[in-house]
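can u pls check wat happens w/ pyridoxal-5'-phosphate
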Amino acid sequence: MSQFWSPLVHRLTPYVPGEQPRLSGLIKLNTNENPYPPSPRAVAAMQSELGADGATLRLYPDPSADRLKEAVAAHFAEFAISPAQVFVGNGSDEVLAHAFMALLKHEAPILLPDISYSFYPVYCGLYDVDYIAIPLGERFEVRVDDYARENGGIIIANPNAPTGDLLPLAHVERLVAAHTQSVVIIDEAYIDFGGETAIELITRHPNLLVIRTLSKSHSLAGLRVGYAVGDSVLIEALDRVKNSFNSYPLDRLAIVGAVAALADREHLEMTRQAVMHSRAKLTADLEGMGFTVLPSAANFIFARHPQNDAAQLAAELRQHKVIVRHFKLPRIDQHLRITIGTDAQCQALIAALRAILD
Ligand SMILES: *Cc1c(COP(=O)(O)O)cnc(C)c1O
């Protein structure tokens, strides 16, 4: 606290990201990073952009990153997406922040699930947006009918975080169609690991904004690239906020790396299949040890053990050099969110749990 702080800063409750340990040798299953390296073509494109002497870095990047918008549109060519329907930003967290400011800040409160990505309430605090938390069902599922009330917008992560639960596309469309007077944002950070994207709905629904990231399925969390796809009127609102905030949110390396990563479909397919395969095996192994594991369409699972306190399990796993995420929040404080690692990492987790539970 300080007299120098603005009143707003006094009121903020910032987001706390998962730990990025400095210690090496830890098995890191706590922030949903992809265990496989990014596309070699993305790496080559960035090396080539950098060149021998880095001279290109003298120059500002393209402020609107048009090549990246074209690459996103091309990635979704089957849904006839144009670059004018694409917005890009410094990680999807930045895209989300702009969306709260540009599209969700109205008189009426926005609606979001009571258990969801915990950054959403943080943006509400930053931008002074009221929200109502709508309880998920018994199985942590989104019940579309529960959103039937006046609102200034709706935001849902699909698959949801930290549960991994998938809302089927038909339910997403029902939600979007039921709220034509407000913007519905679907945060698809994990959709490549087992869901169907809502991007195909965009041509029919001008109130739908789909937000995605290259951090998870493209193994580029360190590059900071996210994007939104929606009607060009929604994109224009995001551009107006972005151009009032930072003209160059994406650097030169991020733009060329992301363009190449999006074009490398084979690499995406290979790594997502590997993650989904390991997820099935890890789920079976944990169930064999008495864990209850929610069905997951994401690159993590949400699990609990009926006889063991989750916070304590997380602490003991850390002593075995495995880190997972525990949220000290109502309804989910007996669950652990475990990122899907390589099969070897998953095996190390199972071995550590065996040692702890014995
Ligand atoms: C990881 C995550 C993001 C943030 O992704 P970045 O692009 O790395 O900022 C957004 N939404 C959800 C639900 C996430 O889990």
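The chain has a mean pLDDT of 97.
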